C-alpha cells in the first residue's frame, strides 16, 4: 500500500509542477540549484547578494556557530564562509536579508521554547567586497516585541527604506508582522511594534528588490502582499514546491522569480516564476524602478484577481487529489489481476 501511495503522491507532484508558472531567466540561480556544501544541513534563510550577482547568502539553524555562507546560484557551491566575531553564541538563527545600506542582516530570532525568551538578536555586518573565507566584526542588535516574546523565523529588510520587519511564526498563536525602529541601534533595545495580523504559519519572507511586494511563506503555502504605505495588502497565494522542510525564500534580483529553500543535506533551492499582479511593479514596467511605499501602477480595481488565484489553488488541489485517486485505483486493479 505504501508503494501505491508513493505513486499517487508522485502523480500529484507532477501535476503541481506542470500547473505552476515557469521561472524567468533572472540570472544565476533563477533555474534553481542544489546546495553542495556538506556543512549546510539546515539552511533556514536565503538572501540574494547585492554586491555579487548570482550569489545567495544562507546559514544553518541552531548549533552551527557564527557562520554564514555565500553560495553560487549557478553551481550550488560555497564560494565564501564568513565567520562573525563580536557577538555571543548564536541561539536559533532563522533568517537573513541584505539591506540597501549594503549590510547583511542575520536574524537570531527563533525561540525553541515557544516564545518565552524576553529578547532576541539581529547581527549586522557589511557585505564583503571579495568572496573568500574571512572573519568580520558584526554588530549585535537586541530586539524585543511590544506584545511580549514571540517565536519567529522570518526577518525582512525593506530594500528602499532599510526598515527591518519580523513576522512571527504561529498562526494559532496570533501570527503578526512587526516593524522595527526607523534605524536599529547597537545600544539599548530595539522594540518591534505590531503593524498587521498574518493569517499564516510563517517560516520565512522576502521583499521584492523594488520593495513593492512582500512574500511570506510557510511549509505548504505562501502569500503575496502588495506593500502600500508601509503596510501589507494580501493579493493572493503562491504555489510552494513540495519540500522536506520548507524554511527559506528570496526573490531573484530581477524580481520575476521566487527561490524556495529547504533544510536537509544537499537541499534543493527551487524556482517559482511570478506573473500578473504578483509581479513587482519594476518587473511589470520593465524599468527596474519601484516605490514600495505607495500603491503600484496597474493595480486591479477589485479583488477579482485575488479570488481567482485562490479558486485556481482549490481547483489544482482537487485535480491533484483526483489524479492520485485514479492512480491508486488503477494500480490496485493491476495487482489484483496478478
Describe this structure in words.
- This protein is of the alpha+beta class and 338 residues long.
- The protein is built from three helices and 21 strands.
- The strands form four sheets. The protein has an eight-stranded mixed beta sheet with strand order 6-7-8-10-14-13-12-11, with no helix packed on it.
- A hairpin with a 4-residue loop joins strand 16 and strand 17.
- Helix 1 (2-19) runs antiparallel to helix 3.
- It starts with a helix and ends with a helix.
- Residues 1-26 and 294-338 have low confidence and may be disordered.
Spans of at least 5 consecutive residues whose pLDDT stays below 50 are 1-26, 294-338
> How do the helices and strands follow one another from N- to C-terminus?
HEEEEEEEEEEEEEEEEEEEEEHH
Shape: globular
Determine the fraction of residues in helical runs and give it as a percent range: 10-25%
Q: Calculate the terminal CA-CA distance, rounded to whole Å.
A: 15 Å
Mean pLDDT: 81
Instruction: Give a quick account of the main beta sheet: strands, pairing sense, barrel closure.
Output: 8 strands, mixed
Instruction: Report strand order across the widest sheet.
Output: 6-7-8-10-14-13-12-11
What is the CA-based Rg, rounded? 20 Å
β-sheet strand percentage: 35-45%
Number of DSSP-assigned strands: 21
Report the total helices: 3
The helix-and-strand class reads: alpha+beta
Amino acid at each position: 500500500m505504501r508503494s501505491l501511495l508513493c505513486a499517487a503522491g508522485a502523480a500529484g507532484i507532477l501535476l503541481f509542477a506542470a500547473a505552476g508558472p515557469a521561472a524567468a531567466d533572472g540570472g544565476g540561480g533563477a533555474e534553481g540549484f542544489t546546495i553542495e556544501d556538506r556543512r549546510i544541513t539546515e539552511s533556514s534563510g536565503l538572501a540574494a547578494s547585492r554586491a555579487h550577482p548570482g550569489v545567495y547568502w544562507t546559514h544553518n539553524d541552531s548549533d552551527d556557530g557564527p557562520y554564514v555562507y555565500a553560495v553560487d546560484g549557478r553551481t550550488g557551491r560555497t564560494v565564501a564562509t564568513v565567520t562573525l566575531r563580536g557577538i555571543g553564541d548564536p541561539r536559533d538563527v532563522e533568517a537573513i536579508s541584505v539591506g540597501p545600506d549594503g549590510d547583511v542582516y542575520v536574524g537570531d530570532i527563533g525561540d525553541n521554547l515557544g516564545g518565552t525568551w524576553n529578547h532576541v538578536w539581529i547581527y549586522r555586518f557589511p557585505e564583503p567586497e571579495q568572496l573568500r573565507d574571512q572573519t568580520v566584526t558584526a554588530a549585535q542588535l537586541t530586539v524585543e516585541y511590544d506584545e511580549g516574546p514571540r517565536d519567529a523565523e522570518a526577518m525582512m529588510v525593506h530594500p528602499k527604506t532599510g526598515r527591518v520587519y519580523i513576522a512571527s511564526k504561529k498562526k494559532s498563536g496570533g501570527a503578526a508582522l512587526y516593524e522595527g525602529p526607523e534605524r536599529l541601534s547597537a545600544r539599548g533595545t530595539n522594540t518591534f511594534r505590531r503593524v498587521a495580523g498574518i493569517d499564516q504559519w510563517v517560516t520565512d519572507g522576502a521583499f521584492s528588490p523594488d520593495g513593492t511586494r512582500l512574500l511570506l511563506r510557510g511549509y505548504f503555502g505562501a502569500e503575496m502582499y502588495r506593500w502600500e504605505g508601509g503596510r501589507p495588502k494580501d493579493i493572493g497565494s503562491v504555489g510552494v514546491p513540495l519540500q522536506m522542510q520548507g524554511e527559506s525564500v528570496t526573490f531573484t534580483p530581477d524580481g520575476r522569480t521566487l527561490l524556495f529553500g529547504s533544510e536537509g543535506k544537499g537541499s534543493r533551492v527551487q524556482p517559482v516564476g511570478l506573473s500578473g499582479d504578483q509581479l513587482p511593479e519594476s518587473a511589470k514596467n520593465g524599468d527596474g524602478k519601484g516605490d514600495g511605499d505607495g500603491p503600484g501602477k496597474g493595480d486591479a480595481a477589485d479583488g477579482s484577481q485575488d479570488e481567482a488565484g485562490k479558486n485556481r489553488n482549490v481547483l489544482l488541489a482537487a485535480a491533484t487529489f483526483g489524479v492520485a485517486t485514479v492512480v491508486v485505483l488503477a494500480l490496485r486493479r493491476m495487482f489484483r489481476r496478478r
